[in-house]
């Protein structure tokens, strides 16, 4: 299903156990499923969205959040996911956002580097695609 641009999109690695758990975590706590669509990074929809991004963002091995036409990556994307959840989760956003970006992204990169060691790769992409 090609996205019509009215929804925000979270693009995750379809072969990553941590990404699957993140999608499941968000999906169970999301306020309105119509606000956010999930896509695997190797899906046709993701490829179409990547083609519209600046070249410097296309080949990154990271999580992408396309919100209101703007692309967020790494920790900025992960933390902004809180904004789709119920109020007690949303209240964490400003607390985490005040951490300087270089520190947030350093932690993100460390977790991303070792994610396959701690989280089993799924046999297939199981997060909600609508």
Describe the overall structure.
The chain has 130 residues and is an alpha+beta fold. The longest helix is centred in the C-terminal third of the chain and has 18 residues, at 101-118. It starts with 7 loop residues before the first strand and ends in a 12-residue tail after the last helix. The chain has one domain. Helices cover 46% and strands 14% of the residues. Helix 1 (17-29) links the parallel strand 1 (8-12) and strand 2 (36-40).
Distance between the termini: 7 Å
The amount of beta strand, in percent, is: 5-15%
Residue-averaged pLDDT: 85
- Report the strand count: 4
Helix content: 40-55%
Order of helices and strands: EHEHHEEHHHH
Oligomer: single chain
Strand order, biggest sheet?
Answer: 2-1-3-4
* Helix and strand composition category: alpha+beta
Number of domains: 1
Major sheet characteristics: 4 strands, mixed
- Over the alpha carbons, how many angstroms does the gyration radius reach? 14 Å
Number of helices: 7
Globally, the shape reads globular
Name the poorly predicted regions. none
Sum up the structure in keywords:
130 residues; alpha+beta; 4-stranded mixed beta sheet; 4 strands; 14% strand
Short description:
By secondary structure, the chain is α+β, with helices and mostly antiparallel strands.
Write the layout of secondary structure elements.
Elements: E1 8-12, H1 17-29, E2 36-40, H2 44-51, H3 55-58, E3 64-67, E4 70-73, H4 74-80, H5 87-90, H6 92-97, H7 101-118
């Amino acid at each position: 299903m090609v996205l019509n641009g009215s929804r925000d999109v979270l693009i995750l690695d379809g072969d990553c156990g941590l990404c699957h758990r993140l999608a499941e975590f968000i999906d169970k706590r999301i306020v309105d499923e119509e606000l956010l669509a999930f896509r695997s990074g190797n899906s046709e929809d993701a490829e179409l969205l990547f083609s519209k991004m600046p070249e410097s963002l296309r080949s990154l091995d990271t999580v992408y959040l396309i919100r209101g036409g703007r692309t967020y990556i790494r920790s900025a994307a992960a933390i902004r996911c809180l904004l789709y959840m119920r109020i007690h989760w949303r209240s964490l956003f400003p607390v985490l956002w005040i951490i300087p970006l270089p520190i947030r992204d350093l932690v993100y990169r460390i977790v991303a580097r070792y994610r396959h060691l701690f989280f089993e790769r799924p046999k297939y992409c199981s997060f909600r695609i609508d």
